[in-house]
Amino acid sequence: MKQLHELTISEVHVGYLNKDFTCVDLVKHLLNRIKKYNPKLNVFLALNENVLKQAEAIDKEIAEKGIDRELLGIPMAIKDNFLTVGISTTASSNILKGFMPQYESSVTSKLLTAGAIFIGKTNMDSFAHGSSTETSDFGPTHNPWNPEKLPGGSSGGSAAAISAQFVTVALGSETAGSIRQPAAWCGVTGFKPTYGRAGRYGCIAMASSTDSPGPIARTVADTALIANVISGQDPFDATTSPTPVGDYPSFLNKKDLKGIKIGLVKEYLMTSMSDEVKKLILEAADKFKELGATVEEISLMNPKYAIGVYTVVQRSEVSSNLARFDGIRFGHTRDSFGEETKRRIMLGTYTLSSGYYDAYYKKAQAVRTKMIDQFAEIFKSYDAVIGAVSPGPALSIGATKNQPMFGEMEDVLVEQSSVSGLTSVGVPCGFVDDLPIGLQITCDQFQEAKALMIADCYQRHTDFNLFPDLDKTL
Amino acid sequence: MHKVTILPEEVKKIAKLANLKLQPVEVNLFAEQFTQTVDIINQLNEVDTSAVAATYQITGLVNVTREDIVDTARVLPQTVALSGAKLTSNGFFVVPRIIDTEETESVI
């Protein structure tokens, strides 16, 4: 029989209804697990002090009315860039140390309305500026598969919380890789919705034209359930789309992928990539064929250009967004910014400044148009494109030192889809050196249902969805 | 395109524009790192963009507006809005002086 920390959303609900355990039992079990292993992993920055009281209220509700909310009593970890009333929110930055939010973010508000219970807030790269959690002002998170390795980032705490089985599901956010890359390095499932599918209100802004909240979970099916709750037009975020939201879970559990056409991106099997990673991606392509899909090699723009576009767009938007941290209305003074944050603000200030705007910012946004056009052309003939999430497995703690472009280089394979606003699912596709490798399945804007359907079918027909035994790895 | 070198003097100017104070060691470090980063960015000049327009909104939304009606759900009560501020006075934020200071001229 599965232990409480191993359950998916539907398994937790079955347990509640069968009275196998209560929400209080589940929360206590997870808190014990966190107490035991978190000191070595540094996943949580803050725990919800009222969680047991909230669990008692949920048990009462279940006893009276059964389960009539989608996420009732589902324990979640929330990335620390989402404002949560009553739980401190810092974006892993000293400038917000001790900050208690004045309002609830749109997505966490929707999760609470659906009955979710928040266990705590997870570590991340400071202001999400990185792909390692190593830029956090509160120390890096360690990878549950091997604590000497990085968990990836910026949603590294949320991915590690799933891999370490501290919670049932977690919330992250992605600007370029920040959900898919840590999910890949920690060996879990991450889902990046289309830009504008879930509201950004109350999500501490990084790059407003690409920031996308999304779930990290044990299975594709669980990410679909969370996506159903957080998606939709948000009156508090004018950039959310009026496109109707599909009922994502209803698209899952397909027995095969007949009729699906998949593009295997040639440029994503980079020369710098290890043969082992390439082999896993080619094996995944074979698996898709076995499941009835057609797989053909396709060509995309050289990923090196995505680095340039992303760097300019991200730094410019960071420079503008972080101007609001003045220490007047909330937070501390600007001397509290860490080195990476200062570097990003300043490069953005430079690319936006008079005389350089056309050469950098406008040029990057024009190359961005070419990337979007190229994907539009590909999705006329293909349902999805696949490739590795990251060129290799998790790197060691300390790898970001003196690497001002670390994140951009590690995220080279996910940046094009991010700056084009596409939706993508990252799922485990094997192991190299006992560390997990992730596969990305990317679809056109607002094709969440299709991306989840393909990823779910792949996941149910492979055996890579594994979790480390923390007594052995730590 | 010719190589762009960012000098420590420029880094100091950018820091001022960005309202950041840097340590001397950071000035030199950032000058070197920005030069490397701009090298990578300048690879974009290899891509011909003469026939395309810049993209600023990727899902194609245009001019999203709402009715000009006060919605109290969007407004924080004054006490809540002020609750994170270190200095307040009579229900207002207290802000530092920005005119007639030594910094004024150089910032503008």
From TrEMBL, chain A:
It comes from the Bacteria. Keywords: ATP-binding, Ligase, Nucleotide-binding, Protein biosynthesis, Transferase. GO terms for molecular function: ATP binding; glutaminyl-tRNA synthase (glutamine-hydrolyzing) activity; transferase activity. Allows the formation of correctly charged Gln-tRNA(Gln) through the transamidation of misacylated Glu-tRNA(Gln) in organisms which lack glutaminyl-tRNA synthetase. The reaction takes place in the presence of glutamine and ATP through an activated gamma-phospho-Glu-tRNA(Gln). GO terms for biological process: translation. It comes from Candidatus Collierbacteria bacterium CG22_combo_CG10-13_8_21_14_all_43_12. Signal peptide: none annotated. This is Glutamyl-tRNA(Gln) amidotransferase subunit A. The active site is at K79, S154, S178. Heterotrimer of A, B and C subunits. InterPro entries: Amidase (IPR000120), Amidase_CS (IPR020556), Amidase_dom (IPR023631), AS_sf (IPR036928), GatA (IPR004412). It catalyses: L-glutamyl-tRNA(Gln) + L-glutamine + ATP + H2O = L-glutaminyl-tRNA(Gln) + L-glutamate + ADP + phosphate + H(+). The keyword Ligase applies. One of its GO terms (cellular component) is glutamyl-tRNA(Gln) amidotransferase complex. Residues 25-450 form the Amidase domain. SUPFAM superfamilies: Amidase signature (AS) enzymes. PANTHER family: GLUTAMYL-TRNA(GLN) AMIDOTRANSFERASE SUBUNIT A (PTHR11895:SF151), TRANSAMIDASE (PTHR11895). Belongs to the amidase family. GatA subfamily. It holds the Pfam family Amidase. Its EC number is 6.3.5.7. It is an enzyme of class 6 (ligase).
From TrEMBL, chain B:
Keywords: ATP-binding, Ligase, Nucleotide-binding, Protein biosynthesis, Transferase. One of its GO terms (molecular function) is glutaminyl-tRNA synthase (glutamine-hydrolyzing) activity. Its EC number is 6.3.5.-. It catalyses: L-glutamyl-tRNA(Gln) + L-glutamine + ATP + H2O = L-glutaminyl-tRNA(Gln) + L-glutamate + ADP + phosphate + H(+); L-aspartyl-tRNA(Asn) + L-glutamine + ATP + H2O = L-asparaginyl-tRNA(Asn) + L-glutamate + ADP + phosphate + 2 H(+). It is an enzyme of class 6 (ligase). The keyword Transferase applies. One of its GO terms (biological process) is translation. It comes from the Bacteria. The keyword Ribonucleoprotein does not apply. HAMAP family: GatC. Allows the formation of correctly charged Asn-tRNA(Asn) or Gln-tRNA(Gln) through the transamidation of misacylated Asp-tRNA(Asn) or Glu-tRNA(Gln) in organisms which lack either or both of asparaginyl-tRNA or glutaminyl-tRNA synthetases. The reaction takes place in the presence of glutamine and ATP through an activated phospho-Asp-tRNA(Asn) or phospho-Glu-tRNA(Gln). Heterotrimer of A, B and C subunits. Belongs to the GatC family. This is Aspartyl/glutamyl-tRNA(Asn/Gln) amidotransferase subunit C. It comes from Candidatus Collierbacteria bacterium CG_4_9_14_3_um_filter_43_16.
